[in-house]
């Protein structure tokens, strides 16, 4: 495994992710922002943040698999959420939990959540991109 995740002493512990990712692999994998489209390009969970987060994470997993990687290889996630406010965190975490259950993993690499005004199409509420490192 090319990624080691950790929470260094002196930084707050955040359950949803680890503060630091140490990459030792030799190949970088950049996954484009994944939205809540199914394989046919149909939006999943219109108006449902948790359902869209779940689909985004499933799409990231599919993209990673296509590159010969998995969530254990992810060094960093960036999440964009339309009209973000802290009250949306439970729905966000629900979506991550549902995807985790389906994938059999708990994705906890360092992550950045960014509130945005809009995404590519009005029905998309979230977009998730990833950087992975593989040997």
UniProtKB/TrEMBL annotation:
Transmembrane segments: none annotated. SUPFAM superfamilies: YjgF-like. Coiled coil: none annotated. One of its GO terms (cellular component) is cytosol. InterPro entries: RutC-like_sf, YjgF/YER057c/UK114. Pfam families: Ribonuc_L-PSP (PF01042). One of its GO terms (molecular function) is deaminase activity. PANTHER family: 2-IMINOBUTANOATE/2-IMINOPROPANOATE DEAMINASE RIDA, PROTEIN HMF1-RELATED. Belongs to the RutC family. This is Enamine deaminase RidA (YjgF/YER057c/UK114 family).
